[in-house]
Amino acid sequence: MSLQALGAVLFLVLTVLVAVKLDSPDRMSWPIAFIPCWIFDGVACILCVRMRRRRRNHSIPAKQLALRAGFLALMIAFQVLLVLRLEGLLTVRWIAVLAPLLAFELLFAGTSVLYIHHNRPY
């Protein structure tokens, strides 16, 4: 199974689980509904480690590895905060829950602009 197919299947399962949770709140908890997200995060972590091992002869810059780890950490932090807030275990404002996602988007946009700026064909 390709990574895209796995992502599509996990997204479909996530959608179904969230719909079931919203339809009957007592049936399951939010962490169970987010299991597809946790699986996808685990696969992404494994792929980052494997990519590093595969390219041992061609060293990946430390900045690039730190950036990938930062992206993953921000997404996982957002998912954990979201689940805790939805479960009622965390009583912070929604802006605090969405802060890691906003940081992820800003970091992604910033790195995309830098990539386009420095790797633009002349």
UniProtKB/TrEMBL annotation:
Membrane-spanning intervals of the chain: 29-49, 65-86, 92-116
Keywords: Membrane, Signal, Transmembrane, Transmembrane helix
InterPro entries the record matches: TM_Fragile-X-F-assoc (IPR019396)
Keyword Aminoacyl-tRNA synthetase (UniProt): no
Superkingdom field: Eukaryota
Residues making up the signal peptide according to the UniProt record: 1-19
Protein name per UniProt: Transmembrane protein
